[in-house]
Every structure is written in C-alpha cells, then in structure tokens.
Design goal:
Bound molecules: adenosine-5'-triphosphate, magnesium ion
Strand content: 15-25%
CATH architecture of the largest domain: 2-Layer Sandwich
Structural class: alpha/beta
Oligomer: single chain
Number of helices: 13
Number of strands: 16
Distance between the termini: 11 Å
Radius of gyration: 23 Å
C-alpha cells in the first residue's frame, strides 16, 4: 500500500501534525500533535529572540513524537505570496498544455515567475459555444516562502518532501473523507489566527481557492477593545468564552464603549435560530477570573444556583451570552464575511458555480461560540462545524488521549490532515 507523508501545518499560532495510514475503507489516525507558537502580541514578556525562535521550538516539541520525527513530510504555504488563479483556453494537444499554462501564468500571476514554484491542476474538459475548452487552476508560490518553510522544517529534524498550499490540502481532506457528489457545491472556511483559507468545491473535480488576510486575531482585538482588556487577557478570555452581564460586575463596566459593538449586530435579527433579545441585554463584559475568583465554567450570574443545578448557564444567561458573542463576531469578522460574500458572488455571477449549498467551518476560530449561526445568518447558507477526524478511524489511538480530546482538536487539524493524505 502506498506510503503516506506525515502532514505538518505550520500556522501563525500553532504547529499541527497528523500521521495517517490507509485502511481498506479510508484512513486511520496514527498520531496527532499540536504545539503553540508564542507570539509577541500575546506574550509581551518574551524576548525578541525567543519570539523569533518560537516556530522552531514548537516544531521541535511536535517532533518528539516518533510518528513524526525524521519522517518524510508534506507541508504547505499560504498568504499573499501564494497566487492561485483560474485559467481557460481552447483545447490543445496534451504535450503543449504545460507550455500554455506557463504562458497564461505569466499574464495573471502578480510576481516574477522566475521567483516562483509553479504547479497546476486541469479540470475536466468543458464545452463552450460548441468548442472544447481546457480549464484549471494554476498556483504560483514565491520561492522565498517555500525556502523559509523548508529550512525551518529541516532545522527541526523533519524531512520536507511534498509542497502544497493550505487551501488545496483543506479541499483534499474534505473530498477524501466526506466525498463530493457531482452537483453539490461546498465552501470550506478554515479560520486561523491571521489567515482564513477559503476552498470552494464544486463536484468532485473542481476547486476554487483563496486566502483572506483576517482571522481569529480580529476577535481577540475586538474583545480587547470592546471590553477594555489587554491583548493577552482578551485572547485568553476568547478561548474560554467567559461572558457576564455588565450589571454583575462591580462598578458597571464598558457600557459606553460597547455601543459600536451593539450597533454592529444590525441586520442579524432575521437569522434563523436567533430570537431578537430585549434591548439593554447587549451590554456585557468578559469576566476575568483573576478579578472575580470565578473559575472557567462557573455560572456568571448566580454562583449558588450554578452549584445546585450543576449547569453553567440559565436560559436567560445563554441568550445574553449569545448576544455578546454576536456583537463581538459582527465587530471582528464583518470584513471577512464581506470578502466571502464577494467571492461567492464572483463565481456565481460568472456561472462558474450555480450557488453554494453548504458551508463547513474549521480552524481554531471555528470553536468560538455561536460562530456557526453567525455565518449561516450572514451568508444565508447552512453552516456546520467540520471535524475531519469524524470520518477517520481514530479507534487505534483514541485511548492515548483524554476523552473528547480528538473532537476538540479535530477542527484545527484539517490542513494537516489533507497534507497527511499525500502519497510519497
Ligand atoms: N476555543 C476557542 N475559541 C475561539 N478561538 C479559539 C479557540 N481556540 C483557539 N482559538 C483561536 O484559533 C486561532 C488558531 O487557529 P489555527 O490553529 O487554525 O490557526 P493557525 O493555523 O495557527 O493560524 P493561521 O492559519 O492564521 O496562520 C487563534 O486565533 C486562537 O485564538
Ligand atoms: Mg492555519
């Protein structure tokens, strides 16, 4: 059976690694690894040198696992120095295709091709006005970007042999685990820290991709501004998603500052599943457990009933929390939503896709509470969380990890999973 590469995804905020093996019916998980990268914004106490070396240190931690160390690996790049472009020209003999694509690429790639690694995928031949046309995706990646990643992985003891881009690895992971039928169109949205990878799969053979330079950092920033917290605190609160009504905090809070955030939720009222809530419920602050003595998961309005009932939220608290989450999401991810809407419109208006049937969200930011409902409402497309491990046999390794660990981690591992499906 074909040997698979180990998949290593070096993100802005963490390194993710996946090792898979093929089984009769699909894939089984051999190992998974993740290590945070300390970043200056969230760790101002760290020296510049420690920050510069943080990606290497994270990779070294991942390489402690013998499933990854020294193994041939597939890695990916993303961001502004990756240029995926659609091309189309009248059908020509197979032998001339590569030359023609190179010529096309020169016209449409925004940097010097002498500095780029180039690859392409051809879609099935299509007919246009009675004539056969060749269509596909050509991808140019700036060599400096590749070299930087390659040297980093080598320094950490990996053997980088397969190059990919985040968006195509994502599409690969989805197609291999969920499968695509001929007529459906699925948008995968992988929301990381600095970047969001968008892959639109139209049937099993056509994929359209782009990276958008925004992500979970914007949520941390919004939380920091709206609630008057410094960035490290805001990042921590975001991940713990602890909100409390303003009234319950001594001395009020950020009522005035919050006005903008509340206004930003306009237009959200008709979202299915979200009942509009009374005005005044939208003034919340994030609870800092250092100040209150509460621990993550404690009820935020009534500690006694929390203990008695064993529940973290009453129905009312839940509604208030949703409102606070909504305000933060609208404030932080409004631009991302517009970019995604524009992308959908672009492909639909050019009749490249008929519509988007569903959205699957992944990446660390997809864990933010209520984000699926927010995307569903804003995009008008059914939206669900995507955990690529859901259709991978994890039985062989699940015992190694705490309960729910793989379910929690899965949505962040989509790119690494797609890379781990690459054959050597
Ligand atoms: N429970 C959570 N709730 C909200 N956000 C979270 C949660 N856990 C992690 N995040 C956020 O997810 C982001 C990291 O996600 P991910 O690992 O997919 O990004 P990355 O690959 O490191 O970054 P990028 O792809 O942008 O370079 C961070 O912004 C982090 O704050
Ligand atoms: Mg990422």
């Amino acid at each position: 059976m074909a040997t698979l590469a180990v998949g290593i995804d070096v993100g802005t905020s963490s390194v993710k690694a996946v090792a898979l093996k093929r089984t009769g019916s699909g894939y089984a998980l051999k190992s998974v690894g993740q290590a945070d990268i300390r970043r200056s914004e969230f760790h101002p106490e760290e020296s510049p040198q420690a920050i510069a070396e943080a990606p290497l240190r994270a990779l070294e931690r991942v390489s402690q696992d013998s499933s990854f160390a020294k193994k041939p690996c597939a890695f990916a790049v993303s961001g502004p120095r990756v240029a995926p472009r659609l091309f189309k020209f009248p059908s020509i003999p197979k032998g001339e295709v590569e030359q023609a694509i190179r010529f096309e690429a020169e016209q449409i790639i925004p940097f010097d091709l002498a500095q780029a690694a180039l690859d392409f995928v051809l879609f099935d031949e299509a007919m246009e006005e009675g004539k056969p046309v060749m269509e596909g995706l050509v991808v140019a990646v700036h060599k400096e970007e590749v070299d930087k990643r390659y040297v980093l992985l080598k320094s950490a003891g990996f053997d980088p042999v397969v190059l990919d881009i985040d968006t195509l690895a994502l599409a690969n992971a989805y197609a291999e685990t969920e499968g695509m039928n001929e007529r459906e169109t699925v948008a995968l949205i992988n929301i990381g820290a600095r970047f969001t990878n968008l892959s639109i799969l139209h049937g099993p053979r056509r994929t359209f991709v782009r990276d958008i330079a925004t992500g979970g950092d914007m949520l941390s920033r919004a939380i920091s501004e709206i609630y008057g917290l410094d960035l490290p605190q805001a990042e921590k609160r975001k991940r713990e998603a602890q909100y409390t009504p303003l009234d319950d905090l001594e001395g009020g809070g950020m009522g005035d500052d919050f006005g903008g955030g509340g206004g930003a939720t306009e237009g959200f009222g008709d979202t299915e599943g979200f009942e509009p809530i009374d005005e005044g419920n939208e003034e919340y602050v994030l609870l800092d457990s250092d100040q209150t003595g509460f621990e993550a998961g404690d009820t935020m309005t009534d500690a006694d009933s929390f203990e008695a009932s064993g529940q973290t939220q009453s129905g009312m608290d839940a509604a208030q929390r949703i409102s606070a989450n909504r305000a933060v999401l609208a404030d932080a991810l409004g631009d991302l939503i517009s970019e995604i809407q524009d992308t959908f419109k672009y492909y639909i208006n050019r009749r490249i896709i008929p519509r988007v049937d569903k959205v699957r969200l992944c990446g660390g930011t997809a864990k933010f509470p209520d984000i699926q409902e927010f995307f569903a409402g804003q995009l008008g497309v059914p939206t669900e969380l995507w955990n690529p491990f859901a259709r991978i046999d994890v039985g062989g390794v699940a015992g190694k990890y705490p309960p729910n660990f793989l379910d929690e981690l899965g949505p962040m591992m989509a790119v690494a999973t797609g890379l781990a499906m690459r054959q050597l």
